[in-house]
Amino acid sequence: MFDGLTREAVVARERELAARFEAQLEAGLALDLTRGKPGPEQVALSDGLDDVLGGDYRLDDGTDVRNYGGLTGIPEARRLGAELLGVRPDEVIAGGNSSLTLMYEYVLNAWLNGPLGEETAWRREPGPLKFLCLVPGYDRHFRITESLGFELVNVRIGDGGPDMDRIEALVAGDPGIKGIWCVPKYSNPTGHVYSDEVVERFARLARRAGPHFRILWDNAYAVHDLDDDPPVLANVMDRCRAAGTEDSVVLFASTSKITRAGAGVSFAAASPANLAAFTKHLGVQTIGPDKVNQLRHVRFLRDAGGVRALMRRHAAIVRPKFELVRRHLEDGLGAEGLGSWTNPRGGYFLSFETPPGLASRVVALAAKAGVKLTPAGATFPCGRDPDDTNIRIAPTYPSLDEIDRAMPVFVNAAALAAARRWLESGTVSV
Amino acid sequence: MFDGLTREAVVARERELAARFEAQLEAGLALDLTRGKPGPEQVALSDGLDDVLGGDYRLDDGTDVRNYGGLTGIPEARRLGAELLGVRPDEVIAGGNSSLTLMYEYVLNAWLNGPLGEETAWRREPGPLKFLCLVPGYDRHFRITESLGFELVNVRIGDGGPDMDRIEALVAGDPGIKGIWCVPKYSNPTGHVYSDEVVERFARLARRAGPHFRILWDNAYAVHDLDDDPPVLANVMDRCRAAGTEDSVVLFASTSKITRAGAGVSFAAASPANLAAFTKHLGVQTIGPDKVNQLRHVRFLRDAGGVRALMRRHAAIVRPKFELVRRHLEDGLGAEGLGSWTNPRGGYFLSFETPPGLASRVVALAAKAGVKLTPAGATFPCGRDPDDTNIRIAPTYPSLDEIDRAMPVFVNAAALAAARRWLESGTVSV
Predict the structure, then answer these.
(1) Structural contact between residues B95 and B265, judged by C-beta atoms closer than 8 angstroms
(2) For the segment A288-298, what is each residue's pLDDT rounded down to a tens digit?
(3) Are A347 and A188 spatial neighbours (Cβ–Cβ below 8 Å)?
(4) How do strand B214-218 and strand B177-182 relate by DSSP bridges?
(5) N or C: fewer beta carbons within 10 Å in chain B?
C-alpha cells in the first residue's frame, strides 16, 4: 500500500483524502451499513402470509392449530424444515420465531441437563469448559456460550471454511472443548462456503474430541443464494451418519430471512437421541410453538420449491446491492490495495479487512462523516479483534441510493486511515 | 358418609353402584375431562385476528413489525399488558406465545445470572435452594423449579388464598427459600381468589424472607370471569410499591385463553430493576418476540375494554359447562357427602376432593369406564398428593353433551370407591 510512493506523494494523497472527508462532514449524512436485516421490499414479498389461512385452521391430521399442543411443531412444518436442512422430518423440531432461541436452549440444556441425559451434562465435567468460535463470525453465537461461562477459543475462517488442521488438533488436545459454532454456507460475515472436504472432516471431528462434543451447524443462509448457479453445501447429517457420528451435529435454520425477520418459523435438527433429550427440556418451559404461524408458513411457502422461487425474488433485490458495494470498493480501494474484501455469492454480509490495527479507526472516521458501521471487533468473541482489521458490511437493508452515498464515505475513510498510518510510521502494514 | 347405614345397606348400595358401573363399561365411552384448553367455539371467537392487519404493518412510531428488533415487545402490546396486570407500561415485557416460557426464563435467569445482577445469583448461595408450591396447584409451575434442582415445599391453599401464617413462618426460618408460585385469581385448579389481606401479606413477605426472594404471580385468569359481577383481586404491585418491596414480585399473563391457546401474546411485569436484568438475559437468546402477532392482537383486542367484551362471550360458552358439572356433582354426591368440590367463579378448573386415599381409585374406575381424568397427584409437586384426595376437573374443552355423559361416570366412580372402602374398613374417612 502506497508502495513506491515518496513521503511527499503520500502527504499529497492524505490532503486530498482529508479534503474529501471534510466535504463529507459538511454533507451531514446519516446512513447505516450495520444491519443484517432484510430490506422493506424483501419483507413485503411475504405479505401473502396474512391471507393464506382463509379461515381454515385444520392440519391434515385434523389438529386445530388455534389450540394447545404439539411441542415439536406441526408435521407439515417439520417436513419443510427437513427439506431445508437435508434431514429426515423425524429429526426436525419446528419452533418459534427465533432459531437463536433454539440454539440457546440447546446449549443451555447440554450444559445444565446433558445433551443425552443427566450423566452427560457438560457442567459436571471437571475442567474449564471451552467452545470454538470461527472468526470473524457471528457475535450472537459467541455471546450464548460466553453467557454460560465457556472460555471462547478463536479459529480463523477462510475460503472453503475454517482451518481444520487447527480445529482437529485443538479438540484432540483438550476434552474441555465441548463444541464449535459454524455457519457453513455464506458464513457470517465473510460469506465463505465450507468445501466438501471441510464438511467431511467436521463429520469425523467427534472421534477426536472429548465426550459429548457438539457441532452447532447454523445453516442460516441455506437458500440465500445471489447467483442462479449457487454453490452446493455437502450434507453434514448424511456424512455424520456414514461416519457413525450423527449425535455430534445439531443443525439450525429459520425463515426469518425468507419470510419475515423475527416473525417466522425456526428449525432445529438432530439425531433422534439428541432430539429426545432436547424436547424433554423444551417441554418444561412451553406447551409448544405458535402453530398458527407455522401453518401460515407452510401454506404460503408450500415446499422447498416454493422457498427457492421466493428466494430468487429476494436475490433480484439483494444482488444489485452487493454489486454496488463491491463496485465502490474496487473503484476506490482496489488499485492501491488499501484493504481486501470477500465476494460472497449469498448471505447477508461481506467482510472487509483493513491493514492491521486500522479497523476501529476506519469505523470512527466513517461515523464522524455520518455513516454507521458495525463496531470493529463485533465479529469476534467479547468484541475483541486481536488484529483490529475486520469490518462487517451489511448491504441488504439500505436502499441502492443510500449505499451509493454511504460507500464513498467508507472508501475515503479506509484510504485516509491508511495514509495517516503511513505518515505516522512509514508503513501501513505491521 | 354412609353415616348411620347398616352394613347390609352399604352392601346394597355398592351392588347398585357396581351394576351401574358395569352398564357404563358396556357403553364404551371415550370422554376426556383432563384438558385445560378452551373449547373450539372459544378459539373461533378470535378468528378476526387474521383479517385485522389489512396490509398495514406499521406501529404508531413507524416501526415495521415485519423486520427485526424490539426485545421487550411493541409499545402497543406493552400498554395492553399493563392494563391487564395493573402495572405501568414500562414495567411490562410483551413476549412470545407462552407465558410459561417467560416464567422459566425468569427463574433460570435468577438462578444462573441473578435477579439483579451477577452477585445476586441464587446458585451462588451456600444452602440447598427451595421453592414454595401452593397445593393443589399447577404442575407446570412446579416442574420448572424442580428441573433447576429446587427442593419443593408444599403449602395448602383454601378459600381466600394460601395459609399465610405458614408461609411467613417458613420464609422467616429458611433463607434458602427463594420464592413461591402463585395463581392469585381463580387458582389452578381450585378456583380460589386471594383475599385483600392475603395480597397485602404477600406484598410484605419479602421483608421476612432471605435475600432476593421472588413471588411469581401468574395472573393467568385475570379476566376469565364467569359472573357478570366478578371478584376483584387487589393490585399486588401497588401494594408492593407502598411496602417498598416492588423488586419482590414478578407478574405473568398471556392471551392464550383470551384469543388463541399457544398462539397468543405473553406478558411479564416487574420493577424496572428486575426487568433490566431479565431483559439482558433475554437479549442473549433472541432479537425479540413476534411483533406481527403482537400487532394483530393489539388491533383485534384494542384495549382492556375490548378484552372484557371478548371475555363475556367466552363466559357465555364456559359458564353452562361449569354449571352442568356442578349439577351432576350435587345431584349424585351431595346428599351422601361423598366428596367435596370448589365452586369457582372463573378460570378453567374446579377441584374435587375425595375422602382420604381414594383419588387414584376414582380416577382408575372412571378410566375403565371410558372417562379420562387428570391423574391423581398431578396437582402436586412431583405428582405426589400425600393424602391422595385431589382430582382436577376441566370443563371447558368437552361439549355440554360430552360433559353430560362423562359426569355420571365420574359421580358413580366416586360413590363406588367410597362404598368399597367402607366395606373394606368399616369407614370411609381415615
Answers:
(1) yes
(2) 999 999 999 99
(3) yes
(4) parallel
(5) C
The secondary structure of chain A in percent helix, strand, coil, rounded to multiples of 5, reads 45, 15, 40
Q: Would you say B66 and A42 are in contact if contact means Cβ atoms under 8 Å apart?
A: no
Q: pLDDT tens string for chain B (430 positions)?
A: 787 889 999 999 999 999 999 999 999 999 999 989 999 999 999 999 999 999 999 999 999 999 999 999 999 999 999 999 999 999 999 999 999 999 999 999 999 999 999 999 999 999 899 999 999 999 999 999 999 999 999 999 999 999 999 999 999 999 999 999 999 999 999 999 999 999 999 999 999 999 999 999 999 999 999 999 999 999 999 999 999 999 999 999 999 999 999 999 999 999 999 999 999 999 999 999 999 999 999 999 999 999 999 999 999 999 999 999 999 999 999 888 889 999 999 999 999 999 999 999 999 999 999 999 999 999 999 999 999 999 999 999 999 999 999 999 999 999 999 999 999 987 776 5
Residues of B in contact with A291 (CB under 8 A): 262-263
* pTM (two decimals): 0.97
Q: Which of B97, B10, B74, B7 is nearest to B336 (CA)?
A: B10
A285/B100 Cβ within 8 A: yes
Give contacts of B 52-81 with A, CB under 8 A.
53, 55, 57, 64-70
Rounded to whole angstroms, the Cα distance separating B82 from B51 reads 25
Q: How far is B154 from chain A (nearest CA, A)?
A: 20
SS3 label, residue B181 = strand
Q: Tell me the residues of chain A between 21 and 50 that have a Cβ less than 8 Å away from chain B.
A: 35, 37-38, 40, 43-44, 46-47, 50
Chain A residues whose CB is inside 8 A of the B67 CB are 37-38, 40, 43, 260-262
Chain A partners of B263 at a C-beta cutoff of 8 Å? Answer: 65-66, 290-293
- Residue A133's beta-bridge partner residues? A154, A181
Of B140, B263, B288, the CB nearest to A66: B263
User: Which of A51, A63, A67 to substitute to test the interface with B, most B CBs within 10 Å?
Assistant: A67
Beta bridge partners of A21: none
Whether A105 contacts chain B with CB within 8 A:
yes
Residues 145-204 of A with CB under 8 A from B: 147-148
**Of residues A395, A389, A383, the one with CA closest to residue A344:** A395
The string of pLDDT tens digits covering residues A228-276 is 999 999 999 999 999 999 999 999 999 999 999 999 999 999 999 999 9
CA distance B272 to B279: 10
Q: Which element (helix H / strand E) includes B93?
A: strand B92-94
Q: How far does CA A92 lie from the centroid of its chain?
A: 20
State how far the Cα of A410 lies from the Cα of A16, in Å rounded to an integer.
15
For residue B290, the chain A residues in CB contact (below 8 A) are: 96-97, 262-263, 290, 293
Please name the residue that has the C-alpha cell 404460503.
A300
Q: How far is B56 from chain A (nearest CA, A)?
A: 10
According to DSSP, the residues that pair with A151 across neighbouring strands are: A130
What ipTM describes this predicted complex? Answer: 0.96
Do B287 and A144 make contact, defined as CB atoms within 8 angstroms?
A: no
Q: What is the DSSP letter of B208?
A: T
Smallest CA–CA separation between B66 and chain A, in Å?
Answer: 5
**A108–B108 C-beta distance less than 8 A:** yes
- Pairs of residues, one from chain A and one from chain B, whose beta carbons lie less than 8 Å apart: 134
Residue B360 contacts A where some CB pair is shorter than 8 Å:
no
3-state secondary structure of A55: coil
Cβ–Cβ contact B260 with A under 8 A = yes
Phi, psi dihedrals of residue A227, rounded to the nearest 5°: -90, 160
CB contact under 8 A, A284 and B104: yes
Give strand pairing partners of A180: A132, A215
